[in-house]
Design brief:
0% strand, disordered C terminus
Amino acid sequence: MRTLVAVAALVLLTACGGDTDAPDTKATSTSVSADDAAALTCKEVRAGIDDFNRQDYAGTVEHFEKAKIPAKVYAKVNQEPEADALLDAVQYYAGLAPAKYPDAARSSQNFARNKAITLEQCASGEPIDESPGTEV
């Protein structure tokens, strides 16, 4: 819960811009560990994958929308390329219209690339419901 509060505080500080009385956002962002930000991101990613596998594409988009904030924090506190790749994947899936998911899953190279990223970074160690077959 403390991590969620820290992420929310970071978002509020970032959104407020250059208020000179506000604490340094760089110092605030380092109070959230890369592991915590990745865990929050992957929790929503896995939930989005589960919804996709149940063909609940609106739910999929909703979970990827929720994953955007912790993914941005993760990319900020982790300078490794995989953090940026996960952020890009989360933004791609959050921006995909629910009605476009089935066709994109079958034919889009972007969908396939982002699927590999999300599964590699977020699916390890956690069971994912693969009922209908094609997961995100």
